[in-house]
């Protein structure tokens, strides 16, 4: 496994691989790797001739007062985990490499960027799209892997790749959870033991939604209210939003239908946690 830290090295290397007819599978991450990331890598390992992992805590997707400084970073450990799933290359650029002096361009996906998490995290998806577009341009992957855990991000990246003809197949894979149901996240490391227990309320509220739907409930408002009630009953949790929306455009729906996404964001202590349930069929 090789580690590349400059854009030029990565570009040259990727160009050689493509010229040799190798297909490239890319898994973009911010590091602090866990089983959620590794599940993407294992699938990417199967699909592509070459597996490239990017590890970069992208400053422009963090807002003022968010956790950019304290975001967990452990490149040594990440490299061990990536090697363990057979990664060929780690691309771990510096900020100077990604955003040299004079940098001015950004990529935005209108409307989708405003919804759900976009309401409280202004500029976040612009930062995500800009860095992912750069990674796609630097590496030229055939496939790129994203987690359904960040459902809005996955939809936005799909839209961007299609709209800008980026020539990459965006693959979205299921949420990986801890045994008790908590969705794995690098930010779970911020939780104290009591907060870790409280954080289960996200998954419990989605299970409640699932139970209501299985019992025949189809009204989005009724489901939202029940979920909100459960989250508000958890003292350590502060609800940011619950959304019941259509997957592709992320617009709110009034009745549950196939491809409805139920998504929520909740703050527990210092951690802002998200989770969701996709109802492919109803
Ligand atoms: P991050 O390092 O948090 O930016 O995540 C990198 C990629 O891993 C994103 O596409 C995430 O959606 C995905 N990911 C993070 N957590 C999970 C999880 N629990 N299950 C599946 N994918 C995940």
Layout of helices and strands:
Blueprint: E1 2-4, H1 7-19, E2 24-29, H2 35-47, E3 50-55, H3 75-84, E4 89-91, H4 95-98, H5 117-120, H6 124-139, E5 143-147, H7 151-163, E6 169-173, H8 193-198, H9 200-214, H10 220-232, E7 237-246, E8 260-268, E9 271-279
Parallel strand pairs: 1-4, 2-3, 2-5, 3-4, 5-6
Antiparallel strand pairs: 7-8, 8-9
Helix pairs in contact: 6-7, 9-10
The structure holds adenosine monophosphate.
**Structural class by sheet pairing and helices:** alpha/beta
Please give the order of strands in the largest beta sheet: 1-4-3-2-5-6
CATH domain class name of the largest domain: Alpha Beta
Question: What would the average pLDDT be, to the nearest integer?
Answer: 98
CATH superfamily of the largest domain: HUPs
CATH topology name of the largest domain: Rossmann fold
| Measured distance between first and last alpha carbons | 44 Å
């Amino acid at each position: 496994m090789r580690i590349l830290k400059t854009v030029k090295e990565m570009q040259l290397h990727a160009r050689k691989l493509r010229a040799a007819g190798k297909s490239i599978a890319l898994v973009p991450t911010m590091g602090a790797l866990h089983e959620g990331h590794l599940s993407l890598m294992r699938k990417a390992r199967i699909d592509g001739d070459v597996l490239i992992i990017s590890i970069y805590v992208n400053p422009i997707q963090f807002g003022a007062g968010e956790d950019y400084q304290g975001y967990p970073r452990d490149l040594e450990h990440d490299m061990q985990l990536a090697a363990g799933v057979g990664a060929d290359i780690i691309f771990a650029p510096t900020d100077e490499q990604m955003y040299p002096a004079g940098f001015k361009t950004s990529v935005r996906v209108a409307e989708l960027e405003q919804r759900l998490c976009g309401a409280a995290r202004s500029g976040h998806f612009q930062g995500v799209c800009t860095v992912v577009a750069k990674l796609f341009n630097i590496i030229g992957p055939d496939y790129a892997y994203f987690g359904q855990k960040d459902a809005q991000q996955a939809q936005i990246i799909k839209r961007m790749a299609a709209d800008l003809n980026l020539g990459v197949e965006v693959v979205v894979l299921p949420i990986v959870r801890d045994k008790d149901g908590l969705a794995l996240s690098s930010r779970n490391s911020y939780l104290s033991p009591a907060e870790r227990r409280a954080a289960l309320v996200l998954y419990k509220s989605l299970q409640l939604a699932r139970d209501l739907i299985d019992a025949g409930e189809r009204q989005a408002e009724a489901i939202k209210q029940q979920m909100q009630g459960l989250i508000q009953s958890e003292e350590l949790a502060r609800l940011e939003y619950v959304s019941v929306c259509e997957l592709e455009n992320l617009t709110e729906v009034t009745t549950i239908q196939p491809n409805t996404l139920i998504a929520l964001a909740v703050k527990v202590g210092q951690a802002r946690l998200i989770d969701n349930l996709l109802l492919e069929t109803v």
